[in-house]
Structure formats: structure tokens, C-alpha cells
Specification:
single chain; 19% helix; 8-stranded mixed beta sheet; 2 domains
């Protein structure tokens, strides 16, 4: 059971255009980023998926953020406890082993550790991202369990995907790579932005080289003041609809400033949060990084609150 519910629970540059290298792997069913954002992850660990691995236990599914859920089950004998986890739209940074199988047209890659195994269906490239199912246990073949689970999960997503309900004001379906307008991003960066997604809930905007980065992220979490209390956030007003956002300096880099706010309150002390940050690796004399971050945050706030 979820602890909270979303449905109430060089040369001339055209500064009007940005660049995104993201591509989606062609497959049956809805596996594009927009479709993945709508998936309610705990619905992917239903009784049929559990039965493909073993037996249900007394544990209840636990959701983290928008797109991650975990659940304990047992093997078919009922003696081995297995931790099952699913992540939707996860960035795949490592170099996992590619298997010889595909599910619903999606390539499956595998990653083993001493205590578990992850199987990922690659849904997009540049950067690589996908749907990952992990299995952990003290004994037994975790890759066999993860493989059975990913097969059941992908088939479920292709035929009858569990979705969040359409809720006014929710960030569930929003693309962070689309919510900072090109003109504002270019004005901050000095040229058209290159957008790079981190999973399906975070996006960085850069001038195409390292050194300057705007990041827009969405998450389900406690309020930004509580999360960042050690950084002593101060209140800033962004728009008529977004007032009292938290602004704080990064504890590691004085050249980074973050602004965050709860776009929509949920129960359980959580909220749908927006975070916008600006970071410059090398300081520029006289530049106020928080003023720059606020320019970006104002633009994002206007978009998500429209």
C-alpha cells in the first residue's frame, strides 16, 4: 500500500531553438517517455507478476517517488525471501551485459551483483534508459527471478499498463525537458540549450559544453524546507501562484543555487515537488547564481502552474 496517493492519496545560433538527442526505441505498446511517466509502478508488482517469480508474502508494496516500487515475495518453496524492485524510466549508466533476448521488441540487458540481479528493458537511447526489475536474495538464482519478473512486467505494460489517474495540477505527465522555455534557457546559457534527460523526471540544460548547467527536476518528497534545512533556505516569490519557494546554496559548491517548491500537496506529509538549480563550475565576478536560478525557476513555475 502506498504511503500517499497522487489522486488526493559556433557561428550564428538560433536562440529560439534547443537541441535534444533523446531517441525512443521502437516497440509494441506504450514505451515512450510520455507513456512511461503515466505508469503507477506498484501496479506493476501485481499478483500475476508475483506468481511468475514465486509466492506472495505478507509485505505490502512500497513506492518511492513517482516511478519506483518494491515488494518482498518468496520463491515457489516459500523458504527464500526475495526482494523485488521495479524502476520505470531509469537512466542506465553502467555497462550491463546484453542478453540474447528481447521482450515486446525491447532489448534486455542484465547486471549482476553479489547479492542480486537486475534486468532492464531498454526503452530509449542517448541517453540509455529503460524499465528495470531487480531481485535480491541471500540464496538462489536472482537473475532467473529478475528475468521472469521483467518478462511479466513488460507484457503487462504492453497490454494493460497501470496508470496514475489524470489529476489537475499534478506533475506526473510533465516533461522537465519541455518546461523551461528555449528563450529563457538561451538567455541564461548564452546560446541554444542542449537538453539531456536523467531518467524521465529530471533534465539538464547546458550550452553544449561543461561548466554551466540548469537542472529541472520533479519528485515526490517532503517539503523543500524540511529536506534542505541544514542549508538554511530562504523564501522567494516566483509568480502570483508560486510564493514562498525555498532557495538555498549548495553545501558543497558555492557556485550552485537551488530553488524548490511543492507544486501540489499530497497526504502523508509529502508533495509533488519542483526543483530548479543553476550551477557554474567556475565563478564569474559579480554574478549572483541565485538570481540566475530564480530567472529559470520563474519560467518553470509559470509553465507548470498555467
Amino acid at each position: 500500500m502506498c504511503a500517499f496517493a497522487l489522486a488526493g492519496c559556433a557561428g550564428q545560433v538560433d536562440l529560439s531553438k534547443s537541441v535534444s538527442n533523446r531517441t525512443t526505441v521502437k516497440a509494441g505498446g506504450g514505451f515512450g517517455d510520455d507513456a512511461l511517466r503515466q505508469i503507477e509502478p506498484c501496479g506493476l508488482l501485481n499478483k500475476d507478476v508475483v506468481a511468475a517469480v514465486g509466492k506472495a508474502s505478507n509485505d505490502t508494496a512500497s513506492r518511492t517517488g513517482y516511478s519506483e516500487c518494491s515488494l518482498y515475495v518468496t520463491d515457489t518453496t516459500g523458504k527464500v525471501k526475495i526482494g523485488l524492485g521495479v524502476k520505470v524510466g531509469e537512466s542506465l549508466f553502467d555497462a550491463p551485459k546484453q542478453t540474447n533476448k528481447q521482450i515486446n521488441g525491447l532489448v534486455i540487458v542484465e547486471s549482476r551483483t553479489s547479492s542480486g540481479c537486475s534486468e532492464s528493458a531498454v526503452t530509449g537511447r542517448d541517453p540509455d534508459r529503460g524499465v528495470t526489475v531487480s531481485a535480491t536474495a541471500d540464496s538462489g538464482d536472482t537473475c532467473d527471478w529478475a528475468g521472469k519478473a521483467i518478462n511479466a512486467v513488460i507484457n503487462l505494460m504492453a497490454t494493460n499498463p497501470p496508470k496514475y489517474p489524470a489529476t489537475p495540477g499534478s506533475l506526473v505527465t510533465r516533461d522537465p525537458c519541455a518546461d523551461l522555455d528555449d528563450k529563457t534557457a538561451a538567455g541564461i546559457l548564452g546560446k541554444a540549450a542542449v537538453k539531456s534527460a536523467y531518467g524521465i523526471r529530471s533534465c539538464s540544460y547546458t550550452p553544449g559544453s561543461s561548466g554551466v548547467t540548469i537542472t529541472v527536476s520533479y519528485d515526490i518528497a517532503s517539503d523543500p524546507y524540511t529536506l534542505n534545512s541544514s542549508s538554511k533556505p530562504v523564501k522567494v516569490d516566483l509568480t502570483d501562484k508560486v510564493k514562498g519557494a525555498a532557495q538555498w546554496k549548495d553545501s558543497i559548491s558555492d557556485n550552485k543555487c537551488d530553488i524548490g517548491w511543492a507544486q501540489r500537496q499530497l497526504n502523508g506529509g509529502k508533495g509533488e515537488n519542483v526543483e530548479v538549480s543553476f550551477e557554474r563550475s567556475q565563478p564569474v565576478a559579480g554574478e549572483d547564481v541565485c538570481a540566475v536560478a530564480k530567472t529559470a525557476a520563474v519560467a518553470v513555475a509559470g509553465k507548470v502552474s498555467a
